[in-house]
């Protein structure tokens, strides 16, 4: 990223190295060039960096480099004469590419990188001109213990299927026309400088088809929403934002294909246990005398109870690890740890008898009520020097 920034800042005085822009070697093949371009285009695309002028400039430079190196003729000229050679021979961006080439090249890349999955959840499948994705997502809220130990939950959700009245066309007479605005592509393309962008066609909403008489049952959508209820087995050890895939319970398309349902897990917090990945933390209140004496304390664990042996003079916020007493990892099945952190508490009030007892205890350790001045003699002298002018 720093290298790209330098190239942008010094563009007027620096010969741009397109290979460095795409972070590839000079002998990279076409597949490596396209792979590098997709990776960087995804990172710096304006849709993911709204309002970031630096990212916008980087995105333009990445596309400039890709157009030069992905074309064999341009790349040959660039390798021999550099960017100035491209300019001197009249190679402007897209100058030797017709609109079809541009749309098939950049358009397909943008769609595959940013299209269906951008802004949604991973794994969403949507064929060209489809009205909706096959895969869908819903959420399930779990109690803390349900996520730790697993459970069975009843899930209520909605899915889409083609309207039977119009056979999924959305048309009352079951007839559609090719959209003239996008020529049936479902996407429209426009240029801004040397950049080509694509977006869903507003006229046909990405279907590529135009309807004159809308179906009364689906309102011209071509599909209807249906309610469903299923029982899902929640595996032991799931955590917040984990997804559980339920095969064959998603949307249905015109061809009868059905996608998958992804259930996103939301876990409620517990009043006592705090979870971090597979480890569990618990705060253990300890009276100062227990810490001083190094007593055994009974503490709760996820699966029952255990004993915490305090060392004599245990400190406040000191942590003690109980290995294998945490959450079982949902993938590896390896159990995390339980971390007990003590909180040493002191009495807020003392009666005369308690004060006398504590004073005797203090004296027995050789501590005096009034600290001798010589104990801080060096410190006092240092402080005095601070205020000398």
What's a quick, concise take on this entry?
It is built from ten helices and 15 strands. Among the domains are: 95 residues, Helix Hairpins; 80 residues, HSP40/DNAj peptide-binding domain; 85 residues, HSP40/DNAj peptide-binding domain (Sandwich), CATH 2.60.260.20.
Q: What is the 3D form?
A: flat
Assigned CATH superfamily of the domain at 2-96: DnaJ domain
Report the sheet with the most strands, covering strand number, pairing sense and barrel closure. 4 strands, mixed
The counted number of beta strands is: 15
* Radius of gyration based on Cα positions: 34 Å
What is the CA–CA distance across the termini?
52 Å
Structure description:
- The structure is a single chain.
- The protein has 389 residues and is an alpha+beta fold.
- Among the domains are: 95 residues, Orthogonal Bundle (Helix Hairpins), CATH 1.10.287.110; 80 residues, Urease metallochaperone UreE, N-terminal domain (HSP40/DNAj peptide-binding domain, Sandwich); 85 residues, HSP40/DNAj peptide-binding domain (Sandwich).
- Helix content is 29%, strand content 24%.
- The protein has a four-stranded mixed sheet with strand order 10-11-15-14. Strands 1-9-8 form a three-stranded mixed sheet. It has a two-stranded antiparallel ribbon with strand order 2-7.
- Strand 10 and strand 11 form a beta hairpin.
- The radius of gyration is 34 Å and the shape is flat.
- The protein starts with a helix and ends with a helix.
- The N terminus is likely disordered.
């Amino acid at each position: 990223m720093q290298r790209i920034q330098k190239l942008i800042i010094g563009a007027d005085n620096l010969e741009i190295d397109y290979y460095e822009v795409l972070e590839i070697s000079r002998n990279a093949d076409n597949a490596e060039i396209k792979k590098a371009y997709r990776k960087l285009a995804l990172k710096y695309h304006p849709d993911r960096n709204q309002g970031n002028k630096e990212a916008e400039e980087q995105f333009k430079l990445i596309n400039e480099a890709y157009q030069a190196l992905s074309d064999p003729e341009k790349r040959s000229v660039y390798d021999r004469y550099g960017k100035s050679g491209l300019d001197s021979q009249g190679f402007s961006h897209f100058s030797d590419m017709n609109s079809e080439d541009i749309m098939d090249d950049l358009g397909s890349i943008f769609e595959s990188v940013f299209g269906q999955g951008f802004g949604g959840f991973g794994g969403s499948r949507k064929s060209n001109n489809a009205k909706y994705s096959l895969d869908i997502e819903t959420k399930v809220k779990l109690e803390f213990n349900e996520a730790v130990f697993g459970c069975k939950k009843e899930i209520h959700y909605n899915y889409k299927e083609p309207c039977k009245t119009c056979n999924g066309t959305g048309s009352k007479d079951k007839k559609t026309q090719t959209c003239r605005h996008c020529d049936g592509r479902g996407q429209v393309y426009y240029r801004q400088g040397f950049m080509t962008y694509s977006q869903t066609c507003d006229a046909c909403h990405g279907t590529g088809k135009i309807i004159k008489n809308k179906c009364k049952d689906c309102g011209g959508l071509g599909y209807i929403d249906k309610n469903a209820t299923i029982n899902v087995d929640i595996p032991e050890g799931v955590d917040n934002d984990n997804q559980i895939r339920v095969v064959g319970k998603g949307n249905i398309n015109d061809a009868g294909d059905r996608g998958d349902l992804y259930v996103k897990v939301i876990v409620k917090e517990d009043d006592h246990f705090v979870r971090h990945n597979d480890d569990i933390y618990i705060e253990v209140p300890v009276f100062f005398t227990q810490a001083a004496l190094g007593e055994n304390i009974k503490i709760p664990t996820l699966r029952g109870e255990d004993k915490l042996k305090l060392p004599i003079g245990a400190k406040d916020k000191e942590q003690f690890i109980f290995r294998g007493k945490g959450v079982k990892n949902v993938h590896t099945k390896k159990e995390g740890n339980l971390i007990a952190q003590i909180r040493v508490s002191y009495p807020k009030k003392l009666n005369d008898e308690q004060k006398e007892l504590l004073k005797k205890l203090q004296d027995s350790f050789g501590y005096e009520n009034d600290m001798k001045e010589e104990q801080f003699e060096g410190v006092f002298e240092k402080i005095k020097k601070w205020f000398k002018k």
